[in-house]
Amino acid sequence: MQLEDLVRESEVMVIADLSEIKNWDETINDYEVIQHASGILSVRRAIWGKYKSGDRITLYWSNNSSISCPRNEHHDTKGKNYIWMLRYDDDGKLITGTNQRVRQLDEESQIDSLLKEHPFFMKGLSGYYPENSSVEIFFTYRNVFEHDVTIPLIAFKNGSIHLHPTYKLELAWNQLPQDKIISTQDSVLVPARTEYTVTIPIRDISGFEKRGYYRFRILTEERPEVQQRK
Questions:
Q1: Could you read off the pLDDT of 205-221 as tens digits, one per residue?
Q2: Which of 180, 161, 179, 174 is nearest to 207 (CA)?
Q3: Cβ(14)–Cβ(51) under 8 Å?
Q4: Distances, alpha carbon 199 to alpha carbons 155, 160, 168, 192, 205, in Å
Q5: Contact 219, 167 (CB under 8 A)
Q6: Residue (of 118, 143, 145) closest to 196 by Cα position
Q7: Which pLDDT value is given to residue 227?
Q8: More confident residue, 128 or 85
Q9: How many angstroms separate the CA atoms of 174 and 49, rounded?
Q10: Would you say 225 and 167 are in contact if contact means Cβ atoms under 8 Å apart?
Q11: Is 48 helix (H, G, I), strand (E, B) or coil?
């Protein structure tokens, strides 16, 4: 993955060192074993996310025993400071998923610049949904600045998506009912160094079938017009 893509797709970014590594196996069947590991990240400095210097974060990673390459391994980072670019899994655990999410310290300034250029984080945009499951899209604007800003509004209220013309929605294989999309010129205030997150329960408004695949896109300018609030 390119560094730009990692910035777009990371929920937590910290400078930290890894310790207290534990390993355990989960047997799936006679031929398949999942090799799990966890460790403690001691945060030296937070680049983005809810954590701060001094916090201790539990990190998880795993590999399928039948796959020799590529492997997601972090044992060799123990005791050294790196930039960790992390995501939450469906259970709320912080994970890497790939060694590429562990970066060198000299990339911090580039990451800071990319955060300003790509303030949006989106999650749950595609996949398979089983029967009786929810289909939720998470849309986040990250205000990396030291001042408040206002951004064009996207919100989910009373069963409808309220959408500024800055944004456009696309949903493959299903159609969003037009009466569930309300155009608005409103904006929303995002305080300094905080996130504005919207959860959109697409299944509730789109007439999805019981199960299947979906792909959803929110199209927007990478840096929408924002106004500084002092």
A1: 766 666 777 777 787 76
A2: 174
A3: yes
A4: 8, 12, 16, 21, 13
A5: yes
A6: 143
A7: 59
A8: 85
A9: 33
A10: no
A11: strand
